[in-house]
Amino acid sequence: MATSTAKSPPTGRVMDVLATLADSPHGRTSAELAKACRISTSTCALVLAELERGGWVARREDRRFCLGSGLFGLVHGLRTQFPLLDRGRDALGYLHETLGAGCSMSKIGDRHLTTVDTVGHGTDGEHAVGQRFPIDPPFGLVAMAWRDDDFVEAWLRRVMPRLGRAEIAQHQRVLADIRARGYGAWRFDDTHQSLHHRLADVLASLEPTARVTRQLTTLMTMVTLQSVTDVLETELAVTEFVVLPIFGSDGQPEYQIEIHSGGSEGGSVGLPLAELDAALRHAQAMLGALP
Fold it and tell me: What's the mean per-residue pLDDT of the chain?
């Protein structure tokens, strides 16, 4: 659990405690929470007491704390503001079972993609709910593929560090490929794949915080992914990521589903391309047009 760097330390401590409990299905003792959040035991006790009074945390008979029923109001608010939370879980479950791959769903914002649900990804934190990715290439390419030329041009021009003309032209070609196919597909560049694996091994040996792991993994993924959207007929067997847009009523992607095969043997998803296409169309139909 990474500690907060909030400008309001008391608020940050509350956020850290709640985030840690959300990641602890079996609960935590006060001492365990203090250690995980890197705060004193007395401060942790005060935070827990206030949260318990509001029903946001509950103390079980074994003296371990867990999230409380007072949060149901927030859950209801999230469902109202993010209408795909319930239906999205069904679509993710269907894709996970059909494709044998880890799946996540992200809300598309102006500057970030925010993970709102995952199925089949384990608990290593790399695909944590609430994690935000910059909407820069390659992560934002599906989100931007149906925008007009002027919007895309302005988006690519503000990417930092600044892109060169050749990079911009390459991204524009990938955007056209995504529009033509209806979704995007990527693999790790052969020349960088071993570097990606070595980084994963180093991170495992160093045991950094989950936040550092996510940031380094995200950076390495950004520089090692290669689009195979236009050649998927011949590259499906080595495809690592498929990203499916979920459109809103304005005709623009409002959410996206990320399918991470992890390079499973026998093809990225273990299905012929025609069956992959059918599964993706079915998932989109399950979610329907957004209000």
Answer: 86
**Rg from Cα positions in the chain:** 21
- Residues 265 and 269: their CA atoms lie apart, in Å, by 9
Q: Contact at 8 Å (CB) between 178 and 142?
A: yes
Return d(Cα 196, Cα 217) in angstroms, integer. 8
How many beta carbons lie within 10 A of that of residue 179, not counting itself? 15
Nearest to 113 by CA among 257, 249, 15: 257
Using one digit for the tens of pLDDT, what is the confidence trace for 135-181? Answer: 988 889 999 999 999 999 999 999 888 889 999 999 999 999 999 99
Of the CA atoms within 13 Å of residue 218, those in its CB half-sphere come to 20
Report the C-alpha gap between 233 and 37 in whole angstroms: 48
Res 246: pLDDT: 96
Please give the average per-residue pLDDT across 234-251, as a whole number: 93
CA distances from 290 to 36, 178, 245, 259 (A): 39, 21, 12, 21
- Which residue, among 121, 103, 125, has the nearest Cα to 22 in the 3D structure? 125
**Interaxial angle between packed helices 9-22 and 41-53, expressed in degrees from 0 to 180 and rounded to the nearest 10:** 70
Asked if residues 68 and 51 have their Cβ atoms less than 8 Å apart, the reply is yes
Q: Going along 21-122, which residue ranges are E strands?
A: 57-59, 65-67, 102-108, 112-119
Looking at the predicted structure, is the pLDDT value of residue 228 above 90? yes
The answer to whether the beta carbons of residues 2 and 128 sit under 8 Å apart is no
CB pairs under 8 A, 24+ apart, for 48-56? 48/17, 50/14, 51/14, 51/17, 51/18, 56/18
